[in-house]
Amino acid sequence: MLDEGTRTTIFELRKKGMPIREIARALVISRGAVRRVLGSGTPKVPRLDRKEKAAPFLDRIRELYGLCKGNLVRVHEVACAEGLEISYPAFTSFCRRHGIGAEPRPPAGRYHFDPGQEMQHDTSPHTIEIAGRKRKVQVASLVLCYSRLLFFQYSPTFTRFDGKVFLTDAFRYVGGCCDVCMIDNTHVVVQRGSGAEMVVVPEMEAFGEHFGFHFKAHEVGDANRSARVERPFHYIENNFEAGRKGEDFADWNRQAVSWCDTVNARGKRHLKASPRELFAAEQAHLHPLPAFVPEVYRLHHRIVDIEGCVRVDSNFYSVPTAVGRQVEVRETKDRIIVYDGPRIEAEHARAVGRTNKRVTDPAHRPPRGEGRKTRKRQEAAARILSLAPELESYVKALGKHGKGPASRLFRRLLAMVIDYPREPLVAAIGEAARYGLFDLERVERMVLKRIGEDFFYQTGDDPGDQDGR
Q: What pLDDT, in 10s, does the model give residues 130-169?
């Protein structure tokens, strides 16, 4: 059948008075074809009106499509059993022409982005192997729309805290950020509304202002608007994760960064360049990182439990602070920092993706068998030796041979060291040690006897008392 352009040319040549034979010779077609076109009276190509074998079964096919839950194979089997004689390819073609089981796909369109104009961020649930176990995790990804530079990381969950941690790491990897960050109406960023009417959570809005960008959400159902970041998830799942294992999340994330370096340096046929080469032109248009990039942390207020621990995300971390005291806990990407007022009391590696794990620093626990009384006795003995080091041998012997609780004996000896002059005290204790005397009441009387009149003024001895009073 002649196309519409050839038919239009035939009519134009005929208007100029050219005979049918010359028109046919000029267009290399038969004279009969020229006569049929001129006889139709229009350059439009007529539609073929062919009788369809399945036309009488159209209503029944629509009914069977619903009954068979959209399975065209089963619809074809039932229709053929009821008398329809048609091949399966012809049957599916008939269904497509009448809109049964298939709708025409609208064109996706094409989006153009200038350097530094937009970056897209999204998450996707994947299943990976961590320490020999399959786990469902969240993959967060960021893509620069102009250069297609890719960065992604893994986390057990994706909360607002995880989002700020990931974006901070992504901006450090890129060395800056674009003007706009396109998201998919996630509750991590969106406070209310969607699309153009989306209202950003104040916390995330302040985070964006610090780096110099703002969030923007695409309309609900318009997933093609964020295709730059959606498409790499399939590539990550079927290329990076295929046959790969990791010991923990930190191991997976290190491998992800290394893989991003390789993929970003690899040329892409449709771009006729690699993302790194395009990024060299885009980098000058990015917002540079601020002079200070604060470490992202989540703040908790906890009370030290009876075991001397604080609980964060179902895990327990030891602290040297007294039981029952309220402390401030800062949870960062990979650390747990415990503050008692302005001072750091403890710092631990964060247990990511674990539950009911106990992280204990041996320095926060006294040696086995040393309770509160033992600690008080040791503190008192240490104080005595700091004030009078020459009493070390007597202090050790007092702890072994003294009668009564050692902590009480050391406290009394400490009071004597603080109250009495050094020389008579040391002389009296030296004599007591020579005779194996550990009764502190008698030792104290020996000290007072040595002090005598040099320490206590008797009546008439005070220079200020001239009258003997």
A: 999 999 999 999 999 999 999 999 999 999 999 999 999 9
Number of folded domains that form the chain:
5
Is 316 in the same domain as 181?
no
Rg, C-alpha atoms of the chain: 44
Q: Note if the pTM is more than 0.85.
A: no
> Does any domain span residue 442?
yes
Domain-embedded: residue 143: yes
Quick one: DSSP state of residue 130?
E
- Return the closest-CA partner of residue 225 out of 104, 118, 116: 118
Overall residue count recorded for the chain in this entry = 469
Token couple for 371: 């309770």
Cα pseudo-dihedral 281, 283, 286, 290, rounded to 10: -160
DSSP letters of 392-449? HHHHHHHHHH-SS-HHHHHHHHHHHHHHS-HHHHHHHHHHHHHTT---HHHHHHHHHH
Question: Are residue 83 and residue 32 in the same domain, yes or no?
Answer: no
The alpha helices in 246-361, defined as continuous H runs, are: 249-264, 275-282
